[in-house]
Amino acid sequence: MDSLAGKKPAVVWALNISVLALVLLWLFPTMGLFVSSFRTSEQITSSGWWASLFPAEQTLQLRALDPDDFRIETSAGVFVVEGNINEPDADLLEITTWGTSSRAPSAFAAGETSDLGDGETMTLSEDGSYIWQGNDDQISGRGQRLFVVATVPPEFTTDNYKNILFSPTNSENMAKAFFNTLTVVIPSTIIPILIAAFAAYALAWMDFPGRALLVAAVVGLLVVPLQLALIPLLQLHNAIGIGKGYLGVWMAHTGFGLPLAIYLLRNYMVGLPRDIIENARVDGATEFQIFTKIILPLSFPALASFAIFQFLWTWNDLLVALVFLIDSSGNTTVMTKQIVELLGTRGGDWEVLATSAFISIAVPLAVFFMMQRYLVRGLLAGSVK
Amino acid sequence: MHPALLGVITIVIGVSGCVGYFYGANLLLDKVIFPAKGPNMGQNINRREMIRPWIFLFPAMLGLGLYLAYPVFATLRLSFLERGAGDVYTFVGFKNYVQMFAEDKFMEALRNNILWLVVVPAASTAFGLLTAQLTDRLRWGNFAKSVVFMPMAISFVGAAVIFKLIYEARPEDVAQIGVLNHLYLTFGGDAPQQWLTIPFWNNFFLMAVLIWIQTGFAMVILSAALRGIPEETIEAAVIDGANPFQIFFKIKVPQIMSTIVVVWTTITIATLKVFDIVFAMTNGQWETQVLANYMYTKMFVARDWGMGSASAMIIMLLVMPILVWNVYNARKEMR
Q: Considering only the top CATH level, what class is B97-334?
């Protein structure tokens, strides 16, 4: 608003800040999933994802090496276990405070020596090395527990993606589901475009009785909930022998996509200049030639808009796939179904869930950012005026 | 056969079948049935131009008729039938409906759906309008719009996972990884809450998902409408000394009212059909049932096709006013 901007700096600031707040609010949920998919399961459960972006103070529970294997008798009756808590993992923890009981993880500063009673001592230095000393009895059994408050740098890993997509032993089936989804989506996007384009041309530029009625019917069918179609069509598919499978889901998506396709394309084609079409008619072009040589190339933006809609809708669909595609064998499962299943069976394993979900939303997001212009144009044309 | 190969073959058959049909049928019409020569040339040309539209329309009409129009009537019929042993259907009149309305779970679904219908379109449209207005003249407005629009590309199921992470609750003595519980405890809450299991309020936690998705849609359409407002009307208001709020509510909003109604009704329809979010997040437990999920449960879990169809008809009935209104407007526009 001109009346706002340029007048009072305070108002401009308030405007910028409130938009920034809105943007962050809208981005935050997706960021959570994205960041979590690059964290290990221990990281995810030990702190919120927002904390992982900064070096963080964390309390870690560790154990000294097993005395039975590693203790050394330095002098008669004095046993020592020496090691470094950073040893097994390469990441260097910078220790600030530590303790030997969960009640007081900050009892000692790095480098101090803790008296564990009866002459048993533990010393932990800043770099993670420790000396655990005591008599035969004390330095035995399991390694001494250590509670360490350390500064951990942000750390991310792509292991989750490797495991879920490429590990042959995983049970999530996401790689297979990815290709199944692709198999569902591509024919379901291309075929309705062709069918609808011809119909839209007839409804836009051919004169015949009943045209207005048909346009009205298309507008009406635009809002018919597809819930109504489930049972009758499943019966139909069973009756003609298709059953559950790819053919059925392709046909269903084609049918359900047609009203929007016809509506979008017709609205666009009606707006094409009348002169071009009439000149072509006068020059003796047949309707078929006019359609393929003039209308189709000119309608590219509308075709692209619908293609994106249909792509997003079929890729993201769950209901149609559940009803028409996925049989009890589970070989034809799609990603959305897999994720719902994971929500049920692996509800707490956020590294699996976040990674799987992000794999499934990455493709539509990429399409969205590349083709946003066409999507917006399609939305503007598609909302019933 | 490998499904990907099957997919490629289907694309080839489907596309070449479509092209072949349209090309062949036109050729047949032009050259064989009504050729533009001979004694009846004039009459032939007239006739074939009468038939051609139907050649263009036929596949689409078949698709629409079979996949959308026929099921409406088939579902209506099924809703009056009861499936007995051996797939024998008997006519039972309104029994399915009566039984359904007597069921607590159905009444809960109906109540929740009405709540959804009140809250989601209103909130999405309001947020959309707010974002559209705030970003209108902002230098980085397009970037902001992209971000708010982005959830449109995310599936309901993906969004369900995203929001489940937000609502996640951990035991009290360990770090909270769900941001809502983290904030709740930071601002004085006593114990972490299982947000999705708190009856009544959990509906709003589910609605947040749909609002998050639909706001972008509302914003895009309303933003275009705001741009379309004639500058003079705003300038005149500024000269008359109207403050920004008056300009927005008294000059801008009335001018884009018809667009607001369109956005509202479109989101209403999307809300009415909401299935995936509830299915993935609570599956109707803890009093969060909605009609579409109730219907799915009846049809494919309880296998009661009569009651499933009856509940589908309730959804259709709720869509009906919008359908009629859309058709009425479309006809008015064509005249």
A: mainly alpha
Q: Quick one: pLDDT at residue B120?
A: 93
ipTM over 0.90: no
Is B114 in the A-facing interface, judged by CB distances under 8 Å? no
To which residue do tokens 């009569």 refer?
B306
Spans in chain B with pLDDT lower than 50: none
- Touching check for A309 and chain B: CB below 8 Å? no
Q: Residue B94 contacts by C-beta under 8 Å, 6 or more apart in sequence? A: B80
Q: What CA–CA distance (Å, rounded) separates A165 from A163?
A: 6
Angle at A18 between CA A379 and CA B242, to 5 degrees: 85
Ranges of residues in chain A whose predicted pLDDT is under 70: 1-7, 56, 87-93, 168-172, 382-385
Of B4, B49, B66, the CB nearest to A255: B66
Q: Supply the pLDDT for residue B126.
A: 93
CB A189 within 8 A of CB A311: yes
Give A82's strand partners: A131
Instruction: Please report the residues numbered 109 through 168 in chain A whose beta carbons come closer than 8 angstroms to any beta carbon of chain B.
Output: none
Residue pairs between chains A and B whose CB atoms are closer than 8 Å: 354
The closest CB to that of B158, out of A186, A228, A361, belongs to A361
A369, B247, B269, B291, B318 from B116: Cα distances, Å: 30, 31, 11, 11, 13
DSSP class of A92 = P
Counting residues of chain A whose pLDDT is more than 70, the rounded percentage is: 93
A191, A225, A358 member nearest B14 (Cβ):
A191
The residues with which A117 forms a beta bridge, in sequence order, are A120
Measured over the CA atoms of residue B66, residue B69, residue B75 and residue B80, the dihedral's sign is negative
Tell me how far apart the alpha carbons of residues A89 and A71 are, in angstroms, rounded to a whole number: 21
The 3-state DSSP class for residue B279 equals helix
A206 touches chain B (CB under 8 A): yes
Distance from CA of A15 to the nearest CA of B (A): 7
Residues of chain A with CATH 1.10.3720.10: 163-382
Predicted confidence (pLDDT) per residue in B209-231, tens digit: 999 999 988 998 888 888 888 88
**CA–CA separation, B26 and B18 (whole Å):** 12
Element (H, E) at B91: strand B89-91
Question: Residue A4's pLDDT is what?
Answer: 47
pLDDT of residue B127: 92
Burial status of residue A324 (CB atoms within 10 A of its CB: 0-12, 13-18, 19 or more)? buried
- Residue A340 and residue B280: Cβ atoms within 8 Å? yes
CA-based nearest residue to A250, from A260, A237, A239:
A237
Distance separating alpha carbons of residues A209 and A198, to the nearest angstrom? 17
DSSP letter for A166, please: I
Q: What are phi and psi of B18, to 5 degrees?
A: -60, -50
**What's chain B's length in residues?**
335
pLDDT (0 to 100) of residue A169:
66
Going by C-alpha positions, the residue among B187, B43, B195, B214 that lies closest to residue B123 is B214
Cα–Cα dist A232/A241, whole Å: 14
What confidence score (pLDDT) does residue B210 get?
A: 93
Instruction: Give the gap in angstroms from C-alpha A84 to the nearest C-alpha of chain B.
Output: 26
Cα B251 to Cα B28, B64, B246, B310, distances in angstroms: 59, 42, 7, 46
Multiple choice CATH, A163-382, 3.40.50.880, 1.10.3720.10, 3.40.190.150, 2.60.120.1130: 1.10.3720.10
